[in-house]
Amino acid sequence: MLRVHNILKKYNIVPTKIVKNNNVFIIDDKYVVKENKNKDIYHYLDDRSFKYYPKIVNKVDDDYLITEYIKEEDTTDRTKIEDMIDLTALLHNKTTFYKKVDVADKKEIYEDTMKKINDIFKYYDSYMVDIESKEIYSPSEYLLAVNISIIFSSLYKAKERLDSWYENIKDKDKVRYVINHNNLDVSHFIKSDNKYLTSWNKASIGLPIYDLYNLFTKKMYDYDLILDSY
Questions:
Q1: 126 φ, ψ to 5°?
Q2: Which of 21, 57, 91, 178 is the most exposed place for a label (fewest CB within 10 A)?
Q3: Phi and psi at residue 71, to the nearest 5°
Q4: Do residues 148 and 126 touch, judged by C-beta distance below 8 A?
């Protein structure tokens, strides 16, 4: 708390009320203060004309970041996720560059991802063998048995898409890279007069699919996420 007061004093901000929300400090419903662990990201975003983050009040080289406090619109989490996906697509488009990669790197990505899919398939296949050996199913086991075809169908579709991706890029010497936010969540998205992404501490360069992959794996049970349009 002392460090927060010191950074506020440095910019002549005299608080009357400070509310701590996890690792974020809200100052008089005017400012937000939090640790700044990725100081270069904002320079890069500005250079790429991506300014969809709350206005920064202090210097981005400080250990703590002071941004304007933005009051959100009252909307559903489902709507926020859809808007966040659109904004993430814009982030990826604005920060796209192409990097020369070795054939072995692409093959490693393909093989690692295929292994994950096969491991999931083996897990459910083994689980189903165990369930089918029982005379009486529990409610959860019955529900899984009835819907297992949906899971297997999704895994087969994932394999087909992965094969298609690899076939398309395996002979190319350049791959698309972007800035990934790496921390997509409804709590890190604000919709007001504009749309904003917050919490950039984990942002880094990578393949664009991983931003949405991580969001999907975290929220797949909460929302019926459809990412085909991306």
A1: -65, -40
A2: 21
A3: -80, 130
A4: no
Closest CA to 180 of 35, 36, 23, 50: 50
Paired tokens of 203:
């942002």
Amino acid at position 155, single letter: L
**Cα separation values, 179 from 97, 98, 171, Å:** 9, 12, 24
β-strand pairing of 97-100 with 18-21: unpaired
The answer to whether the CB of 53 falls within 8 A of the CB of 88 is: no
